[in-house]
From TrEMBL:
UniProt keyword annotations, A-Z: FAD, Flavoprotein, Monooxygenase, Oxidoreductase
Family annotation (InterPro entries): FAD-bd, FAD-dep_Monooxygenase_BioMet, FAD/NAD-bd_sf
Alphabetized PANTHER family for the sequence: GERANYLGERANYL DIPHOSPHATE REDUCTASE (PTHR13789:SF318), MONOOXYGENASE (PTHR13789)
Organism for this UniProt entry: Meridianimarinicoccus marinus
Name of this chain's protein: FAD-dependent monooxygenase
Domain of life: Bacteria
Record has tRNA-binding as a keyword: no
Length: 373
C-alpha cells in the first residue's frame, strides 16, 4: 500500500532519514519536517555494525558510506588502570557479508540526505512540530510557525526528547541515567590501526576508534555522576577536567587525552522502551521509541533496522494502522533486548575488576547480531 502514499517523517536524524529513504524507495511520497536549519550531526563518531550495514546496503548507500569510513577490524577491552587486554573480538570474522564501520556522524547523515534527495524526498528545514493530535484518517500537526498541517500518516523520528512519544505512549519524561559522556576528536600524526579500544575502570570507561582516513581519533569518555542539569550536545568542558577524571588510567589511555583542545560533555538520558509504538496513523521510530545507553553501540543501528521493517510492514499491510501494528510487533522484543544488554554493560564496564566482570556481554551480543544481518 505504499505506492503514492503520502507520508510525513518528523526529524532528519539517522532514523528519520533512513525511514524517509526506505519509504520513498517503496513508492511513497515522503516529506521530512526538521526543526533545525540544516541537516547535520554533531562532530563525533558512530559505529555501524553489520546489521545496520545490511539495511544501508539494501537501500543502496553502503558503498558511499564505506568510501568515507574506516572498516573496523578489532575491539579490545582493556583494564583501564593497567592497560592489560581483557577481551578481544575480531570484527572481520563475524561471518556477516557486511563490514563493521567507524563513521563520522556527519558523513552518515550526509550520505542518507543525498540519497533521500535522489529519490525525491522533500526535506523542510526550520520546520519544528509543536503538538501532534491523531484525528480521523490522519494526524494534525501544530507547527512552531503557528501553521496547522493535517497529514495522512506520520512517523515521529524526533529523538529521545520526542514530542510524539507522550501522545502515543503516555507522559514519561526522559530520565538522566547517571552517566555523562565527554566526546573529543583528536588529530593523529599518522593513520592509526582500525580498532576500537575500550578502557574499563571503576565508575568510568573510555572508548576510542579512528575515523575517516584514520588520522582522527574519536574518543568518548563516560563517567558516572549523581545529577545533571545541562541539555543538548553542545556544552563544552575544560580539557583538564577530562584529563583529571582519567589520570589514574594506563599511559596509553592518558596519551589519547594528552593534546585535546575542544571537549564536549553531555548527560545520557533514556526512557523505557515505549509500551505502544503507534496511535492511529502516528508511529514512533528510533530513539523516540527506544532510546538506549550507547554501551552496545546499537542505538542508531536499531533506528536503521526500524526504518527497514517499517517500510516493509506498511508495504505489505492492508491499511496504515495494521502496517504500524505489524511494525511494532516485529521490532519491540529485539529493541528491548538491546536496551537491556546496554544496561548490563553499563554495570559491567564500570566494575573495578573487569577481568571478573560481565564485560563479555557486549561481545556475546555483538557476535549474535552479526550473522543475522
Ligand atoms: P536523533 O538523532 O535524536 O534525531 C532526531 C531529529 O529530530 C533531530 O534532527 C532533531 O532536530 C529532530 N527533531 C526533534 N524534535 C523535533 C520537532 N519537534 N520537530 C521537528 N524536528 C524535530 N548508535 C549506534 O548505532 N552506534 C554507536 O556507535 C553509537 N554511539 C553512541 C555514542 C553516544 C555517546 C551516544 C549518546 C549515542 C550513540 N549511539 C550509537 C546512539 C545513536 O546516536 C542514537 O540512537 C541515534 O542517533 C538516534 O537517532 P534518531 O534519528 O532516532 O534520533
Amino acid at each position: 500500500m505504499l505506492i503514492g502514499q503520502d507520508i510525513t517523517v518528523i526529524g532528519a536524524g539517522i532514523g528519520g532519514l533512513t525511514a524517509a529513504l526506505a519509504l520513498a524507495m517503496r513508492g511513497a511520497r515522503v516529506e521530512v519536517l526538521e526543526q533545525a536549519a540544516e541537516v547535520t550531526e554533531v562532530g563525533a563518531g558512530i559505529q555501524v555494525s553489520p546489521n545496520g550495514m545490511a539495511v544501508l546496503d539494501a537501500l543502496g548507500v553502503a558503498d558511499a558510506l564505506i568510501a568515507r569510513s574506516v572498516r573496523g577490524q578489532k575491539v579490545t577491552l582493556r583494564d583501564g588502570l593497567t592497560g592489560k587486554a581483557v577481551v578481544e573480538m575480531d570484527l572481520t570474522g563475524l561471518k556477516a557479508p557486511q563490514p563493521w564501520l567507524f563513521v563520522h556522524r556527519a558523513d552518515l547523515v550526509d550520505v542518507l540526505h543525498a540519497a533521500c534527495i535522489g529519490v525525491g524526498v522533500e526535506i523542510r528545514l526550520n520546520t519544528g512540530v509543536e503538538t501532534l493530535l491523531p484525528v480521523d484518517g490522519g494526524v494534525q500537526l501544530e507547527m512552531a510557525s503557528g501553521e496547522t498541517l493535517t497529514r495522512p500518516l506520520v512517523i515521529a523520528a524526533d529523538g529521545v526528547r520526542s514530542k510524539a512519544r507522550a501522545v502515543v505512549a503516555g507522559e514519561e519524561e526522559p530520565a538522566f541515567t547517571g552517566q555523562t559522556a565527554w566526546r573529543v576528536l583528536v588529530p593523529q600524526p599518522e593513520a592509526v590501526a582500525p580498532e576500537v579500544q575500550v578502557f574499563l575502570g571503576p565508575g568510568r570507561h573510555m572508548v576510542a576508534y579512528p575515523l575517516r582516513d584514520g588520522r582522527t581519533m574519536n574518543v568518548v569518555a563516560v563517567k558516572e555522576r549523581d545529577h545533571w542539569v545541562g541539555e543538548g550536545w553542545t556544552q563544552q568542558d575544560y580539557p583538564e577536567t577530562l584529563q583529571a577524571a582519567f589520570s589514574d588510567f594506563a599511559p596509553e589511555a592518558q596519551a589519547l587525552l594528552a593534546d585535546i583542545e575542544e571537549v564536549y560533555l553531555w548527560g545520557l538520558f533514556k526512557r523505557p522502551v515505549a509500551q505502544v509504538w503507534s496511535l492511529g496513523r502516528l508511529a514512533l521510530l528510533g530513539d523516540a521509541a527506544h532510546a538506549t545507553l550507547p554501551f552496545l553501540a546499537q542505538g542508531a543501528c536499531m533506528a536503521i533496522e526500524d526504518a527497514w521493517v517499517l517500510a516493509d510492514a506498511l508495504a505489505n499491510a492492508a491499511s496504515p494502522e495494521t502496517g504500524l501494528a505489524a511494525y511494532e510487533t516485529r521490532r519491540i522484543d529485539r529493541c528491548r533486548r538491546i536496551v537491556a544488554g546496554a544496561d548490563t554493560n553499563a554495570r559491567a564496564y564500570h566494575l573495578g575488576t573487569p577481568l571478573r566482570s560481565g564485560a563479555l556481554a557486549a561481545l556475546k551480543l555483538g557476535g549474535k547480531l552479526a550473522p543475522k544481518a
